[in-house]
Amino acid sequence: MAKMTKPIQELLNKVPIAILATATPDGIPNAVPIGAKRIIDNQAVLISDQFFNKTLANMKVNPRVSLMFWEGNEGYQIKGPVTIETTGRRFEETTRWIKEMSKKMGLSFRSKAAVILQVEEIYAIGPGSDAGKRLA
Ligand SMILES: Cc1cc2nc3c(=O)[nH]c(=O)nc-3n(C[C@H](O)[C@H](O)[C@H](O)COP(=O)(O)O)c2cc1C
């Protein structure tokens, strides 16, 4: 397991959107923007599934994902396996959070699952000599 440093956690909290990449078992990639994300601790990120379609199908058969986010020249890839929770405390909290979010946006959507990403690898993606370097 890798640990997200404070600056990495701060950036993930700050960016409104991150990109979640998944793949089919035979390697066909899929990438989507996600906004409903929360840091659980320095080794885990929660993403709420409202609309996942190919993403969900991919994660069910191939749980390894990459979450990418950046601002300016600072950016990271977080890689690891996900688990999909549709019951329990974390899912209940997520449904409340997304209900509030949907209300504030004047829309009507709900969380179908709390997707928990276990941070296994972290890479820098900013331009420069450290581009692609494994950080943890
Ligand atoms: C700005 C933006 C933010 C989004 N945030 C989320 C999100 O947090 N959770 C979610 O389930 N879908 C979110 N979506 C929808 C997904 O990006 C995507 O449309 C959905 O997963 C269907 O694509 P797929 O078939 O590749 O999974 C968002 C879309 C946009 C444009």
Task: Note the main attributes of this structure.
single chain; 136 residues; alpha+beta; Pnp Oxidase, Chain A; eight-stranded antiparallel beta sheet; 3 helices; 24% helix; 39% strand; binds flavin mononucleotide
Q: Under CATH, the topology of the domain at 6-84 and 114-124 is which?
A: Pnp Oxidase, Chain A
CATH class designation of the domain at 6-84 and 114-124: Mainly Beta
Q: In the CATH hierarchy, what is the architecture of the domain at 6-84 and 114-124 at level 2?
A: Roll
**Number of helical stretches of at least 4 residues:** 3
Major sheet description: 8 strands, antiparallel
Estimated share of beta-strand residues? 35-45%
Gross geometry:
globular
How many angstroms does the end-to-end distance come to?
A: 8 Å
- Work out the radius of gyration: 15 Å
Task: Give a list of the ligands.
Answer: flavin mononucleotide
Summarize the helix and strand pattern as letters: HEEEEHEEHEE
Structural class based on helices, strands and sheet pairing: alpha+beta
- Summarize model confidence as the mean pLDDT: 97
Percent in helix: 10-25%
Low-confidence stretches: none
